[in-house]
Design brief:
This protein is α+β, with helices and mostly antiparallel strands. About 25% of the residues lie in helices and about 25% in strands. α5 packs parallel to α6 and α10 packs parallel to α11. The longest helix is centred in the middle third of the chain and has 17 residues.
């Protein structure tokens, strides 16, 4: 185990000036303890109680505030397990899990995560948007009108965001790479719920990361940037909607100061009481000065490492006054596949799938074929990274299924092989090896879904007495 990282002396001096003596001592003592390993079960794929019986590592529930939230109570490495490759869980600091719980999206809503990379909070929102039920993520999504727009301003991180949502099995999603201002210009105030996981100084990450550059000047710069991001958000929240501002910082300048300043200039927004979370503390109005919105800040949430099983967070849940007029965004201009593309898709689906996908939701972009969400909204000239579910590519004479499709299926949705997590054939597949037909059930040649205990991992193609490996090269284990 690596040595624990201690916060910078200047930061500790600042916290000593803010906290009472006994509170400060407890806060500092938290940095002598290792951080907890948080694990959140993917309820799109498996119920938490079912996963706890399946998991090969010891889990401890975090509380009733999120039944899918656990800590890993042993020294196992869940990030290296095939269940992680299949997207059965997300490894996440417990503090970060509180954001989606606080925003509380409901099935059928239109939700925006404004700064979503790498995807922890976005995947949680995607799970919360769909009501729990049996079947695969794809079957869930086909019956739902929810849409999650997950945005990231940095291109490389937007691609990582899309990859993490793919492993999660999220289908009704739109991943964009844009500034908040361009999103507001394209969409307008249409979202039921908006999350701002604001870029911050990262003060709550001292215990997890080996080094974080910190100074009072950095805090000031972050607060200035946060005020800019928050200024664009009102133009995205519908009347009657909810806006959640969150950071992983402790400094009042980035938290009470930013929110108090926002409320002073926006009388149509007010702080509301969040759902109860065990170990949560209140915001500190006295740290925000005498602004018009300061009195409301006791409704904000502070998570401290000495009170909560996590590194720390600040959360401020706001409601916008008024009532939605019900106009909503314009629909997306779908491009149907050509007759040749549709024929190739139908041939593949008939041979490989046991789930029917609505052809009126198929969208072609060049050779690539997508399944759009039922509620696909117009995007104007925004930079899109992913819209809906990438099904695969149409090639001359055949259809090649995509990895994203495999990750939202189970062995009930496709012709499949099912191997246990500790099966050496599964290890060989994840390493990129082909497999002999003697290791397979007696099925015809063609595309086959490879699963771990029934949960989709990737594709193989039976031909010439072998299962040819189509697991993505970038994901293979050496």
């Amino acid at each position: 185990m690596k040595p624990l990282t201690q916060p910078p002396p200047d930061f500790l001096a600042k916290m000593r000036s803010l906290l009472a003596a006994d509170e400060y001592d407890a806060f500092v003592a938290a940095y002598d303890r290792p951080p907890v390993a948080g694990l959140r079960v993917n309820t799109l794929k498996i119920a938490p109680e079912e996963f706890t019986t399946l998991a090969p590592f010891s889990l401890a529930p975090l509380g009733d505030w999120e039944p899918a939230a656990f800590t890993v109570a042993d020294d196992s490495r869940p990030g290296r397990h095939p269940y992680h490759d299949a997207g059965l869980y997300y490894l996440q600091d417990p503090s970060a899990m509180t954001a989606a719980v606080t925003l509380a999206p409901a099935p059928g809503e239109l939700v925006l995560d404004l700064a979503a990379a790498p995807g922890g909070k976005a995947s949680h929102l995607a799970a919360r948007l769909l009501a729990p039920g049996g079947g695969s993520p794809l079957r869930h999504a086909l019956a739902d009108d929810s849409l999650l727009v997950a945005n990231e301003v940095h291109a490389g991180r937007a691609r990582l965001l899309a990859d993490n949502l793919a492993r999660w099995g999220a289908v009704n999603v739109l991943v964009t790479h844009e500034t908040p201002e361009r999103l507001a210009a394209a969409f307008g105030p249409v979202f039921d719920r908006v999350l701002i996981d604001a870029p911050c100084s990262g003060e709550a990450m001292f215990r997890r990361l080996e080094s974080i550059e910190w100074s009072a000047a950095i805090v000031t710069a972050c607060a200035r940037r946060q005020r800019g991001v928050l200024a664009a958000a009102p133009d995205l929240v519908r009347p009657g909607g909810r806006l959640l501002y969150a950071t992983c910082a402790f400094s009042p300048e980035e938290n009470e100061g930013v929110v108090g300043n926002f409320l002073a200039g926006r009388s149509d927004f007010h702080l509301i009481e969040p759902p109860p979370i065990t170990g949560a503390d209140r915001g500190r109005p006295e740290w925000a000065g005498d602004g018009a919105g300061a009195a409301q800040l006791a409704r904000a949430v502070r998570l401290w490492p000495h009170r909560f099983h996590g590194e720390g967070h600040f959360l401020a849940l706001m409601a916008r006054a008024g009532h939605d007029e019900g106009t909503g965004p314009a629909p997306f201009n779908r491009r149907p596949p050509t007759a040749a593309q549709l024929r190739l898709w139908r041939d593949f689906a008939a041979a490989a799938l046991t789930i029917d996908l609505p052809e009126e939701q198929l969208h072609a972009h060049g050779e690539r074929l997508y399944l759009l969400p039922r509620r696909a909204i117009d995007t104007g000239r925004l930079h899109l990274v992913r819209y809906g579910l990438p099904l695969g590519e149409t090639r001359p004479g055949h259809f090649r299924p995509g990895h994203d499709l495999a990750l939202c299926l189970t062995d009930a949705d496709a012709r499949a092989v099912r191997w246990p997590a500790d099966d050496p054939r599964l290890a060989a597949y994840l390493a990129g090896h082909d497999l002999p037909s003697s290791d397979l059930p007696p099925d015809p040649d063609g595309w086959t879904l490879v699963t771990v205990d029934g949960f989709g991992l990737g594709w193989g193609k039976r031909a010439g007495g072998r299962l040819k490996n189509h697991y993505p090269h970038a994901l293979r284990r050496g």
